[in-house]
Write a structure and sequence with these properties.
This protein is of the alpha+beta class. The chain has two helices and eight strands, in the order αββββαββββ.
Length: 137
């Protein structure tokens, strides 16, 4: 199954779970997740960015290239931008081009924008985000 198909299925399942879940709670890591007390399922983790004009990158012409190794060169289309303090839902993360010492990229969704952002710009102290699965794993 292609990575984007798997991501779409995860988003659909999360939307169903989120509709049944209670209110979001802030975790000590700075992430927010929605938990369904009845079955232990959880929604996507929510994070914010600290930088201005953080590009949400994609490659509609060849998604496999972008999914294989996220980078500005492999994901040349900008599907949106995030501003400081704006939240997004982290679907999964994987290693790609190193950005200021951080090799991790996060596949995100925010409204109609979907794509990768460099984890370097996420308002979290660790390179790899807690509670966010590795893409394709």
């Amino acid at each position: 199954m292609r990575l984007r198909t798997a991501l779409a299925a995860a988003l659909a399942a999360t939307a169903l779970t989120a509709g049944l879940a209670g209110p979001a709670t802030a975790a000590s890591t700075g992430a927010t997740s929605v938990n369904d007390a009845s079955d232990g399922a959880s929604a996507l983790a929510s994070f914010t960015v600290w930088a201005t004009d953080v590009n949400v990158r994609d490659n509609p012409a060849d998604p496999a290239v972008c999914d294989g190794f996220p980078s500005p060169g492999n994901c040349p289309s900008v599907a949106g931008q995030l501003q400081p303090g704006q939240s997004f839902e982290a679907v999964c993360q994987k290693q790609g081009e190193n950005v200021s010492g951080n090799p991790w990229w996060v596949y995100i969704t925010r409204g109609d924008s979907r794509g990768y952002i460099a984890s370097y710009y996420v308002d979290h102290p660790d390179n790899q985000l807690p509670g966010v699965p590795v893409c394709g794993a």
